[in-house]
Design brief:
Blueprint lengths: L30 E9 L4 E9 L10 E10 L6 H7 L1 E2 L3 E5 L3 H15 L1 H4 L8 E5 L14 H9 L18 E2 L2 E2 L1 E10 L3 E11 L13 H4 L12 E8 L5 H17 L9 E8 L25 H20 L4 E4 L2 E5 L4 H7 L3
Helix pairs in contact: 2-4, 6-7
Length: 354
């Protein structure tokens, strides 16, 4: 199956040096999977996206993490513990607003099965599950996503190229009134050691007049087929890195996702849930109850992290545009009779030709 063109393939001159896949899977060990549900006869266009920070290993190894909400009109489970403990265990799932419970149940079941030895003792699961609203393109009131769909996305997770646009949880999403959804990008950073910073977004936010791409007011140039009078969406950003960062530095990194989405024009609308998570695969440690009293980790000095922060901003910016570039025309169901248009690869490329 031929991969569709991405933003860079159209000649858009994004800054920075991407990894070989320009995807979150450029971070070693990270796996991504999808379960995509589409049936126009049932007004069904939704799904589940799964991210496994440490792949499908059967030994539970937490990842150090930080969380930030630019605007909290949305949900990401597990963040209270991330804020207090600085880590989480298990997968990250992203779906639609009404699928939080089903995905949480599916993720818990998957963790119990995957980490069977761990759960033979006194243990609990607290997966991260996030959402954005797809009710314009999907009948969200049907509660179509089940725990089995969450498990299917987890079982499908793997390394390699990551599908974008209408895949997994991004299937029914809209960005700047164009078809949006799943997008990803990565950056290489050399600070004497070389590391990767990468983003995966579920882009479902913004209105057309705000849209800016690489400084161009694209939304004011492409004004046809508007859908929304005001902001009604959200965006979830997952940042992954193999750079050894502390929980405080990862929270600072998560904050930079706000600058990344800001580059595409959004001011962070009041109705938008703009929620970000950053984790590192560095410093693998056993579960706290199985670890020694004293532990040693390596952490980058925060005073040297500006290139890491810049990489996150660039990766998020490009990931959002990749989500739109992968889009296709989709009919709306609320209201019926309209079309959520793809941004149009040729016309977008033409705006960046000399």
């Amino acid at each position: 199956m031929t991969r569709p063109p991405r933003a860079r393939d159209l000649g858009l001159p994004f800054p920075g040096t991407p990894g070989p896949l320009n995807a979150i899977t450029d971070v070693p060990g990270v796996e991504v999977g999808f379960c995509t549900l589409t049936d126009p006869t049932r007004d069904l266009r939704t799904g589940v996206t799964a991210i496994l920070p440490r792949g499908k290993g059967t030994t539970p190894i937490p990842v150090t993490a930080g969380h930030y909400a630019l605007n909290g009109n949305g949900e990401m489970t597990g963040t209270h513990w991330i804020d207090d403990a600085g880590y989480f265990l298990g997968p990250v799932l992203i779906s639609n607003t009404h699928a939080i419970g089903a995905c949480h149940t599916g993720a818990v079941q998957w963790m119990i099965d995957t980490y069977a030895e761990h759960f033979a003792g006194v243990a609990w699961a607290m997966p991260v599950v996030a959402e954005t609203y797809d009710g314009i393109l999907n009948d969200i009131t049907r509660l179509s996503v089940t725990p089995d769909h969450a498990r299917a996305a987890l079982d499908a997770a793997g390394t390699g190229a990551v599908a974008e646009g209408s895949t997994g949880g991004g299937n029914g999403m809209i960005a700047y009134e164009f078809k949006g959804g799943t997008g990803t990008a990565s950056r290489r950073v050399d600070l004497g050691g070389e590391w990767t910073v990468a983003a995966l977004v579920q882009a479902n936010f913004g209105i057309r007049p705000w849209l800016t791409i690489l400084g161009k007011p694209v939304g004011q140039m492409l004004t046809g087929d508007r859908l929304l009078p005001r902001e009604t969406g959200s965006i979830i950003v997952i940042l992954a890195t193999d750079a050894p960062l502390s929980p405080l530095s990862l929270r600072a990194l998560a904050k930079r996702a706000a600058i990344g989405i800001g580059r595409t024009g959004t001011p962070g609308g009041n109705s938008s849930g703009d929620i970000f998570l950053a984790f590192t695969t560095a410093n693998p440690q056993p579960m706290a109850e199985r670890a020694r009293l004293l532990r040693q980790v390596t952490e980058l000095n925060p005073d040297h992290l500006d290139p890491i922060y810049l990489a996150a901003v660039e990766a998020v910016d490009e990931a959002v545009v990749n989500a739109m570039v992968a889009g296709e025309d989709v009919p709306t169901i609320k209201p019926r009779g309209k079309i959520c248009r793809a941004i149009g690869r040729e016309r977008l490329a033409a705006l960046f030709r000399d």
